[in-house]
Write a structure and sequence with these properties.
This protein is mainly α and 205 residues long. 73% of the residues lie in helices and 0% in strands.
Length: 205
């Protein structure tokens, strides 16, 4: 049966989904949300943001801009797998520093564990990137959605429906294969579940 939605429309929708769930955007928005959710008040939240932002947002963003200006990366998606490791290493260092800062600030354990799980997931997906173009779109969103479900409970399970939509968009745009988007989902889900479990948090707590 012929698809009733024109090819151009499907391509446009895939572009919208990809931009809406751009990994750095998704990770940053959820991270800032958690900061103000778990901080005692606005001033404490702003203090956490002040300490964390340079390493988690500004340095990675500036470094990417420099890489793009110098021609080290060809597009914002880092479509060429060989162009990914350098930026990801810088991002991992920033995330590691941010995790350490949160630990010493003695933020609530749930908040720290989410950050630490993101660090572990990013390290693992970066290692995989050296030999295979795993999907960071599905990996990052899966990490966030899994954390939401663990922290918020079973009522948030429907959010997982975002994953196949994002996977479809990435495959439609020919940015990834089906196995690559599935790989991103599996790695992120397993890592997030295991890290939270090791810190004593269970699914649907």
């Amino acid at each position: 049966m012929k698809n009733p939605i024109p090819t151009e429309t499907r391509h446009f929708l895939a572009e919208v989904v990809s931009w809406a769930f751009f990994p750095p955007l998704v990770a940053t928005v959820f991270f800032i949300f958690l900061i103000f959710w778990y901080s005692a008040d606005l001033s404490e939240g702003l203090r956490w943001v002040t300490f964390i932002s340079p390493f988690l947002i500004f340095i990675p963003l500036i470094f990417f801009a420099v890489m793009y200006k110098l021609g080290w990366v060809s597009d914002i998606d880092l479509s060429d797998r060989s162009q990914r490791p350098l930026y990801l290493v810088v991002f991992i260092i920033g995330l590691a520093i941010a995790s350490a800062i949160l630990y010493f600030l003695q933020v609530p354990l749930k908040f720290f564990v989410y950050t630490f799980s993101g660090l572990v997931m990013t390290i693992l997906t970066t290692i995989i990137t050296f030999c295979w173009k795993i999907s960071f779109h599905t990996a990052v969103t899966t990490s966030v959605v899994t954390a939401i479900t663990i922290l918020g409970g079973a009522r948030y399970i429907p959010i997982f429906l975002l994953i196949p939509i994002i996977a479809w968009a990435r495959v439609k745009l020919k940015k990834h294969t089906v196995s690559q988007v599935i790989g991103g989902f599996v790695v992120a889900w397993v890592v997030t579940e295991v890290v939270f479990y090791l810190f004593g948090f269970r699914f649907f707590i």
